[in-house]
Amino acid sequence: MQDGSLFKNLKFKLKINFPLIIIGAQWGDEGKGKVVDLLAKQATHVVRYNGGNNAGHTVVFNSEKFPLSLLPSGVLHQKKLLLAQGVVIDPAVLIKEIEFFKKRGVVVDLVIDPRVNIVMPYHKALDAATEAWKGKKATGSLHLGIGYCYEDKNNRSGVRFEDLVDPKVLKEKLKTLVPLKKRQIEGVFGQKTELSTEEIYRDYAEYGKKLKKYLGDVSAIVQKALSCHDKVLFEGAHGTFLDGIFGTYPYTTAVYTIAGGVFPYVGLPPQKIYSLGIVKAYTTRVGNGPFPTELFDDIGWRIRAAGGEFGTVSKRPRRCGWLDLCMLRTAIRLSGFDYLAITKLDVLSGLQKLKICTHYVIATASDAESNKTPLKEIPSLMNDFSRCRPVYKEFKGWSADISRVRRFADLPKEAQIYLKFIEKELKVPIKIVSVGAERNANVLL
Ligand code: GDP
After folding, report:
1. Among the options 3, 37, 45, 57, which is catalytic?
2. H helix runs in 228-355, sequence order
3. Which atom of ligand 1 is the closest one to the Cα of 347?
4. Ligand 1 nearest-atom number relative to CA 58
5. Contact 37/71 with Cβ under 8 angstroms?
6. Is residue 391 in some structural domain?
7. Within a domain: 260
8. How many Å lie between the centroid of ligand 1 and the Cα of residue 435?
9. Kind of pairing, strands 64-68 and 80-83?
10. 109 and 253 share a domain?
11. pLDDT per residue over 313-329, tens digit each?
């Protein structure tokens, strides 16, 4: 593919500082893929540093969907792509993804850190066994094995990328690990498993052979790029409230998703990295847990249908609700956003009234006794969070289709008011307003 052929009509001049980290400000699925793809044009390096293939993105170009679950979203711009140690890799998935892009003539200039941990078949088997054991209380996990892979990483019993590409070491490790995991699955969970050390070795040694050429010290490469003032873009996976510690525990992932995680996950000393928070114009959540602004009525269904809010793999409907400024203030405090991008504003077109949650009150046993002290952020106690009730400000909606609008002044007045209110309340400048899934459906500020 000739440089520029895929994005020649992507014209923009966005004044934004690098190095830059991009973080989802809500519960994920904010449309990070599209924004990273947009900003990658200005970057020299795009670094993925956390999560696994449970954090899929979709980039749409010329109506063709490009699914990405491990490769950084900068792939379409053929930038230097880096997978830092905080990522866990399912090698079969990564190889498939690389081949998908290569077939379309995209040059995949990739480096994978030797410290990256590998998702193994026994991680997936453990995932499935845990779900089966939980029965009705199962969380609906997709059995991708990501959580178990991080568990092994933290227990120091992981298979690292450096092991995958060294058949001797891989064989030795598997000789101990596979029987151990089998015992766990059969003994603890009482599940049958077909895991075979030989088969796993055969498949994974083959994956290692295919991926070996990508081995490199990502920590050192990124440090060098930063010292040369190259434009490094860090792509955060998941969303702020899926952070394993500061998110809405226990309905979270196993990793840090807040901006500070980038330092250990890449291997960098603390320094100024600008951050951009991606905010969907409303809120969605997958799975269980408190969701103060959730909509249970027709409006929720309208948003879900217009926004295509269904799980990428599971197809399960996502829970939908109004925009929540308490979440966003908390996200800003945790990740120090310098800029905001508002996505999917077009999805709200056609609604007569819109609401934004400006603060919460905590409900006590009887509503009459509600504690009226306004809470401006998500409380640190999850027990309190489950009792938070939203207080809304109402806005007039707009009926026009805004997906072809490219200038702020051309947006309906009501949409301008909605955006200005968000910016004023959060005190962070909005730099991008996404008004459609297509690559250039943006209002840039
Ligand atoms: P991510 O995980 O945060 O990257 O989010 P996903 O890529 O999984 O989900 C976002 C979905 O919304 C994708 O299908 C995008 O193509 C789509 N999308 C992104 N921005 C917009 C937008 O502004 N409007 C509409 N209608 N769709 C969008």
Report:
1. 57
2. 262-266, 298-307, 325-335
3. 26
4. 7
5. no
6. yes
7. yes
8. 10
9. unpaired
10. yes
11. 667 899 999 999 999 99
